Structure formats: structure tokens, C-alpha cells
């Protein structure tokens, strides 16, 4: 059957191509293959013949870092977004959900997947990496309670410090985000990346200065991952 790509996705691809003309398109995708057609997928044309999903190749050397693209899409507040999948994580933006583990056969480590809603809105995407403006970082919460323990790995979303370095934890286990030897600039860069991707609920002020709760007593009881 004949098909068209959703206007929002046509615009996004044009913006990405214009911003990064040398990027690789090796893992780009629109309409699904035979495997996609056998299951529900936004890569399949809908009842109107519209494909509402696109894959963008991860190519940091060519300018397209899908880690940043995923974070900027999720943080954009654009109501056209249905969900984003990147590096074994999915975020259902249309449901107001945060990032969680994605366990499909394709881990989406070579490309980012974006699905959009039924909107025919083709206006330009207001993403920092596409319009040349500084990224907008997540401001800290006014108060940072202790993390609630959870057995689910994909809820490791709390940043907390022991006074020497910053850790990402779910209350059950933890992994290091910064090192004791990192200077302030390095710490801020590392925290921006974690917070901007939506994997942490607190920690970086708009001016980039780290503001992480310190609680060595809590961390002492949480094993290192």
C-alpha cells in the first residue's frame, strides 16, 4: 500500500539532516519491514496510510548523539511525542511517564526511535541541538527526600552524595556517577548528562552548579553495583 511519513517526522528528519549534513544514516528507518508488519508497530502505516515512527542513527562523530537527542525530546514538552526509545530505555511522554527499562529484542543502541501521535502538525522542533541554543537543564527539587527502595533496576533514579562523590541509587544498590578526584566542572558535566536524560529526579541547577543531597549514612547501607 502507499504510505506517507507523519508531517512532524518529515520535519524532524529535515532539521537533523540540515544541522548534521555529514551524519550517518545507516540505522535510519521509517516504514517497517516484514517483521514489523506481523505485529503492532508505529512503523506500520495506520488506517490513513501514515507511518508515525522514525529511527535516527546514533552517530556522535557526525554530530548526532542520540543520548542528547533522547533527553532533549523528552524534555521538550512537545505534545506530538508519543514515546522515545533509546539504549534499552523507553519514555512514554504521552502518558507523562519517566524513563524505564525497555526489553524488546532490539535494544535501540544504534538508533533512537521516536513515535508521534495522530497529529498532522509539521511545525519545526524546538530542540537545542537543532536550533543552536544552550540546553535547558532540569532545576533541582526544593527538597530531596531519601530514595524509596525498589527492586526494579530501571528505577535507579536518585542522585545522592557521600561528601566525596555522587552516586545513582534506587535504595537497593548504587553506582558511581562522579569520582572523588573530579573537579567542579567535570562534576557538573556528568550530572547534566544524567539529569538531562531524565534518569535522575534532582541535582543540577539551571546555572550548572551541582546541588545534590549528602547523606553518607544512607549510602553506607547500599552496596555498590
Order of helices and strands: EHHEEHEEEEHEEEHH
Q: How are the strands of the largest sheet arranged?
A: 3-7-4-5-6
Radius of gyration equals 19 Å
As an assembly, this protein is: single chain
Q: How much helicity do the residues have?
A: 10-25%
The proportion of residues in beta strands is 15-25%
How many domains?
2
Tell me how many strands there are.
10
Low-pLDDT runs: 134-147, 150-154, 201-209
**End-to-end Cα distance:** 50 Å
**Which structural class matches the secondary elements?**
alpha+beta
- Principal-axes shape call: elongated
Give me the secondary-structure topology:
Elements: E1 4-5, H1 7-19, H2 34-37, E2 50-51, E3 53-57, H3 66-75, E4 81-86, E5 89-91, E6 99-101, E7 111-116, H4 128-131, E8 158-161, E9 166-169, E10 174-176, H5 184-196, H6 216-220
Parallel strand pairs: 1-2
Antiparallel strand pairs: 3-7, 4-5, 4-7, 5-6, 8-9, 9-10
Describe this structure in words.
The protein is α+β, with helices and mostly antiparallel strands. The chain folds into two domains: 4-131, no CATH class; 153-220, no CATH class. Helices cover 22% and strands 17% of the residues. It contains six helices and ten strands. It has helices spanning 7-19, 34-37, 66-75, 128-131, 184-196, 216-220; strands at residues 4-5, 50-51, 53-57, 81-86, 89-91, 99-101, 111-116, 158-161, 166-169, 174-176. It has a five-stranded antiparallel sheet, covered by helices on one side. The longest helix has 13 residues, at 7-19. The radius of gyration is 19 Å and the shape is elongated. The termini are far apart. Residues 134-147, 150-154 and 201-209 have low confidence and may be disordered.
Amino acid at each position: 500500500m502507499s504510505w506517507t511519513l507523519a508531517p512532524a517526522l518529515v520535519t524532524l528528519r529535515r532539521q537533523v539532516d540540515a544541522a548534521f549534513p555529514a551524519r550517518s544514516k545507516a540505522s535510519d528507518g521509517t516504514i517497517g519491514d516484514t517483521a514489523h508488519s506481523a505485529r503492532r508497530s508505529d512503523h506500520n502505516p495506520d488506517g490513513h496510510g501514515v507511518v508515525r515512527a522514525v529511527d535516527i542513527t546514533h552517530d556522535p562523530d557526525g554530530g548526532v548523539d542520540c543520548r542528547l537527542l533522547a533527553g532533549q525530546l523528552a524534555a521538550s514538552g512537545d505534545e506530538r511525542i508519543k514515546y522515545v526509545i533509546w539504549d534499552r530505555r523507553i519514555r512514554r511522554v504521552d502518558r507523562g511517564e519517566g524513563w524505564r527499562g525497555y526489553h524488546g529484542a532490539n535494544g535501540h543502541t544504534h538508533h533512537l526511535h521516536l513515535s508521534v501521535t495522530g497529529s498532522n502538525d509539521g511545525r519545526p522542533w524546538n530542540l537545542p541541538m537543532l536550533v543552536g541554543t544552550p540546553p535547558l537543564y532540569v532545576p533541582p527539587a526544593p527538597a530531596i527526600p531519601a530514595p524509596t527502595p525498589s527492586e526494579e533496576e530501571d528505577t535507579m533514579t536518585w542522585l545522592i552524595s557521600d561528601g566525596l562523590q555522587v552516586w545513582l541509587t534506587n535504595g537497593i544498590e548504587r553506582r558511581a556517577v562522579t569520582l572523588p578526584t573530579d573537579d567542579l566542572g567535570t562534576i557538573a558535566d556528568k550530572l547534566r548528562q544524567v539529569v538531562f536524560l531524565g534518569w535522575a529526579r534532582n541535582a543540577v541547577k539551571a546555572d550548572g552548579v551541582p546541588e545534590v543531597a549528602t547523606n553518607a549514612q544512607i549510602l553506607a547501607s547500599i552496596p555498590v553495583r
